[in-house]
Amino acid sequence: MNNNFLLSHRKEEPENGVLYMVGTPIGNLNDISQRAINILKNVSLVACEDTRQTKKIMNKFNISNKLISFNKHNSLMKIPKIIKDLKEGKSIAIVSDAGMPGICDPGEDIARRVKSEGVDIICIPGGCAAITALVSSGLPSSSFVFEGFLPKKQIYREKILLEISKSEKTTIIYESPKRLRKLLNELFDFCGGKREIMVARELTKKFENHVGNNINEVIEYFKDKDIIGEITIVVKGIKKRDFNPDKLTIKKDLNDLINAGLSLSEASKYLAKRNGLKKSEVYNMI
Ligand code: SAM
Questions:
Q1: How does pLDDT run across 118-144, given as a tens digit for each residue?
Q2: Of 150, 31, 46, 184, whose CA–CA distance to 99 is shortest?
Q3: What is the pLDDT of residue 123?
Q4: Ligand 1 atom closest to the CA of 130, numbered from 1
Q5: Where are the domains of the chain?
Q6: Any atom of ligand 1 within 6 Å of the Cβ of 199
Q7: Among 172, 174, 198, 210, which is best to mutate for testing ligand 1, by the most ligand atoms less than 8 A from CB?
Q8: pLDDT at res. 253
Q9: Measured from the CA of 133, which atom of ligand 1 is nearest?
Q10: Radius of gyration (C-alpha) of the chain in whole angstroms
Q11: In a mutational test of the pocket of ligand 1, which residue from 72, 232, 234 has the highest number of ligand atoms less than 8 Å from its CB?
């Protein structure tokens, strides 16, 4: 195979006037790609979440380039200037502290704004905790839901937990070690103890570990331990045939959805679809 063909599908990188969203490692610095190093070395400037964090990568790979801070506190203020620079022909890289910028990290807003201004965005793929955890879990991965961090407000949180409890797809969740216990107890309440799950800690790092196999076992494992490190949770979906709703369950679900802010009509429509019923049949149950 002609390698030049693979490498030269675009003009030489970085191109002027392009925003590069550069994926960086989620732990193991050796996971960075040659292409990412080349971009970080040669763009006009690198906008990063925390300059100290990005300097670790820059130092390891002998990259010296101009760094500016771009994080959730200052991004709104900085976006117009970045767009102006791009339109004047600069090439700019966005990096987050770890993984893919834009995935639960600053980057999403700027990508949307830059695109709407007709400026090109090119993503340089890198590590992403969600995908790394999913693949290591061995759970079905051809179709999945990524929830990121669940909302803190209980009614929104419960709405999503309810969806997870009924989902046939694998769900991936980010959580802080401080809140892991609470989340595991909620997953137990909504999905039951036997639901398959994997808690991935410190992916790609020295003390990487994977805790499974079901919610009961994972709760037991963490019962007497200090929970530290970065954590991603992967929850298996249900099999269609395992879901056999009775009238009481549907009534409870309806209440939960209404408490979570849906109207009676929206909640009935959702549950009818979910349970293969007509909307009128759900109405009749109440
Ligand atoms: N942009 C990142 C990505 O592409 O995965 C995610 C950033 S988000 C602010 C940080 C969360 O990602 C952590 O709280 C944790 O849930 C998850 N995470 C990041 N690195 C991880 C790792 N090495 N192992 C497990 N989870 C990780």
A1: 999 999 999 999 999 999 999 999 999
A2: 31
A3: 97
A4: 5
A5: 12-127, 130-239, 247-285
A6: no
A7: 174
A8: 84
A9: 25
A10: 22
A11: 232
Residue type, 24: T
CATH number, domain 130-239 = 3.30.950.10
pLDDT range class, residue 52, cuts 50, 70, 90: very high
Total-model pTM = 0.84
Q: What tokens were used for 25?
A: 């490692």
Residues 148 and 209: their CA atoms lie apart, in Å, by 20
- With a 6 A CB cut-off, is 100 part of the ligand 1 pocket? yes
Residue position matching structure tokens 């298996």: 236
Residues composing the chain = 286
Structure tokens that stand for 238 in this block: 């249900």
Distance 259 CA to ligand 1 centre (A): 31
The CA 48 to ligand 1 mean position distance, Å, reads: 16
What digits encode the pLDDT tens for the residues 58-70? 999 999 999 999 9
In testing the pocket of ligand 1, which one of 71, 104, 235 has its CB within 8 Å of the most ligand atoms? 104
**CATH code, residues 12-127:** 3.40.1010.10
Nearest-10 crossing angle of helices 180-191, 215-222: 150
**The two domains 12-127 and 130-239 share their CATH topology (first three levels equal):** no
